[in-house]
Amino acid sequence: MADGKNRNYKITGVVAVSIAAAMWGLDGVVLTPRLYNLDVRFVVFVLHLIPFALMNIFFFGEYKKLTSITTQDWFTFFLISLFGGAIGTIAIVKALFLVNFHNLSVIVLLQKLQPVFAISLAAILLKEKLHKGFILWASVAVVASYFLTFGFHLPDFNQEKNTIYAVLLSLLAAFSFGSSTVFSKKILIKYSFPTATFFRYGITTIIMFFIVLFSGTFNQFGKVTPENLLFFLIISFTTGSGAIYLYYYGLVRIRAIMATIAELFFPVSAIFFDYFINGKMLSAVQWVAALIMIFAIIKLTGRATKQQSS
Known about the structure:
The protein is mainly alpha-helical and about 300 residues long. The chain contains 12 helices and no strands.
């Protein structure tokens, strides 16, 4: 009986992580690109403002913890919000806007390089040891990402300028989200996930408020169309805060390596939605490169997980 409950517990975890990952794929190629008519900084501000306003209804009690958070923890929260909220989100949203509905799945797939940066930064900042195969599999993933983007030809800096910029921004997003993951490891030792998420969204909203204020883009409120508002609300309730909570609901029920495999629904769903909704399909070379890159990331994450548990 206990084994059956444990199995159902794990199955629930895998399903939750898989659904969350698929929702992120939907967001990257279907939802967020529909906000392309608005300024990127304004979009990121609103994408954090709406979920944070919603969280205030359900998690208002989190404000009681304001006085107990140390200066060091506030700084860590700020770094999580700066990299995972502001910089990372601005970079990936700008990348999606730049390609103008072309190569959306490629831009989304490049985010799978996040573990390369997360493991590297964990070694530098948290003094975690790199496993023996790290350099090999990280190199394979990076090389595969090149062929995923450009195939067998060299990039044309004149004809593919926007694509190159989008790729660089996608890599910046992967680095930023990887950095946020490392800082989150430190903060989640002391604080629960709801607390960490509440203050992450709150601080990111404040950061983006000042970015929007000093960039003079508050006038974008007057440019928000009914369609924009609809997508803002859909993202906020589903692929934004909703997917994050669903992901962590599942993550606490399964091992990291199982989560990594379940997260494959992210690139798979991105390719699926890009084909059936946008009519875009990867070339044969890109398919092979994507599979090799994902395999390398699984090897990286699997080895890192074994090393941490040993």
